[in-house]
Amino acid sequence: MRKILASTIILTLLFLISCNTSPTANIQGVYEIDKPSLKTQLETEMGNSGKLGSGIVNAILNNAIMEFHIKGDSISGIFGLIGEQIVYNTQIEERNGKLIVRVKNSEAVITPTQDGFLFSPPHIDVSFRFNKTDRQALSANAQKAINLQNSGRKRTKELNKVDADDRVQ
What we know:
- The chain has four helices and eight strands.
- The mean pLDDT is 82.
- By secondary structure, the protein is of the alpha+beta class.
- It has one domain: Beta Barrel (Lipocalin), CATH 2.40.128.
């Protein structure tokens, strides 16, 4: 009787522990954009544009900086494509079975896959494939882009403050 009771308690505890697992537990690590997949997406969008289209696709790929670091239930990184760069440093929430990342006044969605995840940025009907890397931190290029983006924001805030102070005087 004691063995049955002990087994039941152990199974119950294991069940409770498994239910408590974080929804982000399986996607911890550093991820980067799957450039071959992105190239295929861009070429499909460009259609049959010949050498000019191919050149544009290659330029976009060379300048794309898209990396994320997921640690715990937080995500940090950069999504930079065609001159638009968004820096992420926020929490990942689970809502209705989806992993949600708040960005400004919108939300992006992360869908885990076998070797990474699909990232659906706000206001775009396309998902981007990210693959897990062996790195423990974002690349130097990604970190440099994030630092440049953050310093640009800081300068803009300072200029806006100076402008507001000038209007008050």
